[in-house]
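Re: that backbone. Tokens:
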């Protein structure tokens, strides 16, 4: 009974902190702007199965992709065992899901094998980070805290797997020693159980209790650490893939207010007629955290900081001052910095800083070729160019600021209706000696 009370208290505390964190994120999402409507649910489910659950984009780097996929799939299987631990902890039962029969055996056996596989994969990932100095993990945006964050998360996952194996091994040994039935199948732990032979029943019991509690408390701690870590992608990447932009990558979203203005220019008779439901746009493009859409913000929370986007970015590769990963991470940092004020004082809150310039420079923005290689490569379908273009839109439309070459293009469009320096009347001069019949 005492352990049930302690477990319930730990669970309540975990849910309380998690609920508080979630409510803050919900409030921040409420500060963001609308984006595309979420339709085509069938298409989205298929996309999620392929990209998120199937990890299809991860396999572009076969070895690390395969290792990551094993960790991801292992987490899914082990999750069932964690749910069982919560039921057991609350009700004081033992192995409560054994009623599932053969299915239970399959789940427990898979979880037992995956615990070892994930532990090995984590050791490989740690080794890469500690000894191989992979270029993809470096960059000006990758501060000391980012590297520490990754190492802490990897350590916790490793401990989770070791405590799971320790718990299973002591359970098997306890049951065999007491001549009681072992529920579930343990392909790995049955061998580890051999290491515990000869230990007294009370010590075995203590061994089991220590691993059981360490495992579940680590899960509770990790669940509350994730929202403040790059490993928040554990929660956010699947929803982010489900909520991907379904438009072709090269298609940039139009700004509704500008589209309307252009249409009015094409039809001047309606230019001064009031449009029902029209409100004046607050700001053209993105200058700061409150200007981004919910999708931009979701992208930033889901980013794993893997650096695949930057590793294929032609601007970054040729030494320009641009890293698409930095753009996404900057938005997340800025929202974290300004979010408290936005929640308490509303969208008008200012701390005399902004995402543009205090985090992302004009030089970075104009270095982007909008080639979409970053979005194509991102394993969780983050779309960087839409945010970059919206930041540029603010520069051009609100400040009239653009590189010199672009300014002359803009002037030509304004004066000549085309990007070239020629008057519209001269456009067909090139064809005057060609005997082309006018229709
Ligand atoms: S779209 Fe821009 S940021 Fe993305 S890869 Fe191309 S140049 Fe780099
Ligand atoms: S944006 Fe995508 S590819 Fe780039 S670091 Fe984040 S998760 Fe990786």
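Recovered sequence:
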């Amino acid at each position: 009974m005492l352990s049930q009370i302690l477990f319930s208290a730990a669970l309540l505390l975990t849910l309380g902190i998690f609920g508080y964190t979630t409510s803050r994120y919900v409030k921040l999402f409420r500060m963001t702007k609308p984006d595309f409507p979420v339709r085509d649910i069938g298409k989205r489910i298929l996309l999620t199965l392929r990209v998120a659950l199937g990890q299809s984009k991860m396999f572009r780097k076969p070895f690390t992709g395969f290792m990551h996929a094993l960790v991801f799939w292992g987490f899914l299987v082990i999750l069932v065992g964690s749910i069982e631990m919560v039921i057991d902890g609350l009700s004081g039962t033992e192995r409560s899901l054994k009623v599932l029969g053969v299915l239970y055996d399959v789940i427990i056996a898979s979880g037992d094998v995956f615990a070892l596989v994930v532990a090995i994969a984590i050791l490989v990932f740690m080794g890469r980070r500690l000894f191989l100095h992979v270029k993809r993990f470096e960059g000006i945006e990758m501060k000391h805290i980012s590297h520490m964050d990754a190492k802490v998360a990897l350590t916790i996952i490793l401990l989770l797997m070791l405590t799971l194996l320790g718990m299973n091994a002591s359970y098997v040994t306890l049951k065999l020693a007491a001549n009681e039935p072992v529920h579930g199948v343990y392909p790995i732990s049955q061998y580890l159980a051999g290491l515990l032979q000869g230990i007294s029943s009370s010590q075995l019991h203590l061994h089991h209790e220590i691993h059981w509690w360490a495992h579940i408390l680590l899960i509770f701690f990790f669940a509350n650490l994730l929202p403040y870590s790059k490993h928040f992608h554990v929660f956010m990447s699947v929803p982010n893939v489900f909520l991907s932009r379904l438009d072709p990558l090269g298609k940039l979203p139009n700004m509704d207010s500008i589209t309307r203005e252009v249409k009015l220019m094409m039809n001047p008779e309606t230019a001064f007629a009031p449009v029902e439901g029209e409100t004046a746009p607050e700001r053209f493009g993105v200058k700061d955290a409150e200007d981004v859409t919910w999708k931009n913000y979701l992208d930033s929370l889901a980013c794993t900081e893997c650096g695949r986007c930057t590793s294929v970015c032609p601007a970054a590769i040729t030494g320009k001052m641009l890293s698409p990963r930095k753009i996404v991470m900057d938005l997340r940092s800025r929202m974290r910095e300004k979010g408290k004020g936005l929640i308490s004082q509303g969208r008008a809150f200012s701390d005399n800083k902004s995402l543009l310039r205090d985090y992302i420079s004009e030089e970075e923005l104009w270095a982007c070729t909008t080639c979409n290689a970053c979005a194509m490569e991102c394993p969780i379908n983050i779309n960087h160019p839409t945010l970059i273009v919206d930041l540029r839109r603010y520069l051009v439309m609100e400040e009239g600021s653009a590189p010199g070459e672009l300014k002359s293009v803009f002037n030509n469009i304004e004066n000549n209706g085309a990007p070239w320096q020629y008057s519209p009347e001269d456009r067909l001069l090139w064809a005057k000696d060609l005997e082309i019949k006018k229709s």
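Residues 303-309, 325, 328, 377-378, 380, 382 surround iron/sulfur cluster (ligand 2) (CB under 6 Å). The chain is about 60% helix and 0% strand.
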